């Protein structure tokens, strides 16, 4: 089969697996990665290899921007102590322990062992976002998990680049140290500059399909240019997204936001599906390069590293959790964390595409490259399957499910918005103002009715169904042209969407 035909078959397989994962309540990243591994082992199955640079720019950059756009900078300031501990301390400690294991059990040179540590150290932003997308956990816990995943890749990639340079050059040079020191601030500054430039050009494309396309193109370009400049591409994209989010919501039109969010949700989901499926399919390339006589020893070493990675994260998280619970200055402005929240964060350390892409980016002459690559793949698959599949049961066991709290918070927020709208009409007279007041009064009353029973919703949805039937009759009898029909149908759809229960408004897969 051609590449396009193979891709279609794999997408059909992915769609079927997504329905299985949704009905079984399993996170789709783990299922897709495991299925990709099984597909790769089937004789005659298509062999799709990932170019590391392309994989990071295509799969990581848009997903990272999507996650960072929804993570306000105020949250980063509020939770900076745990974010700093996890993104810097956790990654560095994990890398150092894995480096020791590499020297002790795999006879790797110290720089090469540190490269391995940097590869497997960072929990992945894509994996964390995908697994947590449909789990309802406490807001503070979710903020720490998502915030951590935005920054730890940058720390790991900087460490990876430095250790790899030492391994290739045979020592540490001052030019490399200066370059490494400027990579993080340079990435942040470049990301902010790109966001300012993007805001200046957005007004020419807002409200157009080309504007949505430009968002994707600019995201990948920002990542690629940052890499060419030698600055941190991860921090660049995070700074780019956060800067855009700080002003973009007020500047863009409602129509553009609705369309852009829908397009990004679908595109990022597709990229996640392909990334985790392709990730599993790399097992054939890895095993083909590994000699059978060394496979048992390599798998044993990979298992040791997997256990070490999980235990180190758990120890770092629990130590940070207890410090934050007892030392107000350490936790900053955040509320004291609970022991259960610490257990959840400690267990939520899935590795993903960043780990695999950096492993495949190693030079061909890297010491024991096959062993390092196999170990990285084992850590990715082990954490995705072991931790990803047990997160939902763990949340229920720890009683951290906050679905009801989220519904109550949503209702309170709606009431606050209604009050703000009604208060804006103070001092306004006339029939128009009275009509707007009646609209807000109806919304407020409906909000209280929905909490008790759904008769109001049923009546309103029935009325909209009658309108839609009348519209269809006018369309079939050619009383309306296509443009008028589309406009009225869209208005009915938006009104129906506003009346539907919260759980029926989102399109989900897992």
TrEMBL record:
Transmembrane segments: 83-107, 113-137, 172-197, 209-226, 232-249, 261-279, 299-319, 340-362, 374-395
Keywords: Cell membrane, Ion transport, Membrane, Sodium, Sodium transport, Transmembrane, Transmembrane helix, Transport
InterPro entries: Cation/H_exchanger_CPA1 (IPR018422), Cation/H_exchanger_TM (IPR006153)
Primary residence: membrane
Membrane-protein topology: Multi-pass membrane protein
Signal sequence annotation: none
Domain Cation/H+ exchanger transmembrane: 11-395
PANTHER family recorded: SODIUM/HYDROGEN EXCHANGER, SODIUM_HYDROGEN EXCHANGER 7
Record protein name field: Sodium:proton antiporter
């Amino acid at each position: 089969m051609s590449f396009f035909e193979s891709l279609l078959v794999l997408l059909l397989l992915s769609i079927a697996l997504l329905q299985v994962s949704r009905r079984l309540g399993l996170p789709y990243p783990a299922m897709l990665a495991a299925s990709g591994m099984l597909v790769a082992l089937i004789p005659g199955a298509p062999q799709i290899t990932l170019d590391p640079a392309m994989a990071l720019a295509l799969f990581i950059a848009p997903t990272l921007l999507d996650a960072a756009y929804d993570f306000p900078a105020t949250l980063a300031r509020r939770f900076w102590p745990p974010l700093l501990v996890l993104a810097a301390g956790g990654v560095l400690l994990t890398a150092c322990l894995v480096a020791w294991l590499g020297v002790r059990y795999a006879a790797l040179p110290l720089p090469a062992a540190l490269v391995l540590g940097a590869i497997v150290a960072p929990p992945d932003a894509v994996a964390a976002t995908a697994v947590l997308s449909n789990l309802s956990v406490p807001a503070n816990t979710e903020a720490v998990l998502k915030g951590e995943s935005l920054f730890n890749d940058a720390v790991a990639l900087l460490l990876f680049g430095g250790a790899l340079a030492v391994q290739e050059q045979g020592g540490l040079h001052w030019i490399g140290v200066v370059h490494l020191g400027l990579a993080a601030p340079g990435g942040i500054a470049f990301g902010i500059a790109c966001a300012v430039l993007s805001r200046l050009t957005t007004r020419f494309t807002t409200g157009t399909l080309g504007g949505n396309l430009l968002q994707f193109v600019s995201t990948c370009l920002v990542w690629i240019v940052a890499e060419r400049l030698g600055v941190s591409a991860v921090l660049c994209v995070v700074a780019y997204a956060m800067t855009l989010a700080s002003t973009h919501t007020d500047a863009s039109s409602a129509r553009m936001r609705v369309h852009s969010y829908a397009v990004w949700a679908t595109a990022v989901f597709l990229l996640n599906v392909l990334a985790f499926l392709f990730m599993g399919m790399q097992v054939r390339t890895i095993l083909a390069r590994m000699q059978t006589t060394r496979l048992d020893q390599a798998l044993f070493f990979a298992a040791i590293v997997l256990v070490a990675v999980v235990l180190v994260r758990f120890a770092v998280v629990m130590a940070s959790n207890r410090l934050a619970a007892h030392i107000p200055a350490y936790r900053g402005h955040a509320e004291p964390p609970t022991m259960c929240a610490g257990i959840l964060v400690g267990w939520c350390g899935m590795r993903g595409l960043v780990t695999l892409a950096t492993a495949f980016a190693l030079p061909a002459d890297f010491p024991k490259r096959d062993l390092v690559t196999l170990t990285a793949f084992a850590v990715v698959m082990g954490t995705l399957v072991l931790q990803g599949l047990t997160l939902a049961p763990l949340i229920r066991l720890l009683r951290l499910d906050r679905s009801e709290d989220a519904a109550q918070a949503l209702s309170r927020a709606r009431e606050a918005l209604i009050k703000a709208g009604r208060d804006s009409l103070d001092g306004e007279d006339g029939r128009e103002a009275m009509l707007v007041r009646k609209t807000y009064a109806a919304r407020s009353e409906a909000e209280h009715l929905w909490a008790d029973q759904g008769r109001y919703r049923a009546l309103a949805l029935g009325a909209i169904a009658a309108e839609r039937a009348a519209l269809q009759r006018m369309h079939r009898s050619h009383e309306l042209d296509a443009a008028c029909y589309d406009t009225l149908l869209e208005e009915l759809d938006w009104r129906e969407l506003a009346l539907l229960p919260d759980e029926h408004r989102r399109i989900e897969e897992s």
